[in-house]
Amino acid sequence: MSSSSFTSENYYRRRRNTERGTPKEKIVLSMKRPMEDAEGKFDLVAELETLTAQHCEAEAELGAVKVIDPDWCKLHEKWMLDD
């Protein structure tokens, strides 16, 4: 009378799997744990200030670069002046 689907072994296997959680619950928990670990360790304002300072430095370096427009007549390349 006992069916193979309801044996004590299958019952305990199903029970053990439900205690572990569904695959969706496992994924949610695996994503939640790193966020909980990082909580309080990341300061958004400080990070923004650092990035702003780096951006200002890069802008200053870019401003120091001078582009020289060549004198094509001295280079004997007058055809470059014709548009």
TrEMBL record:
Segments of this protein annotated with the region Disordered: 1-26
Protein name in the entry: BnaA10g28650D protein
Gene behind the chain: BnaA10g28650D
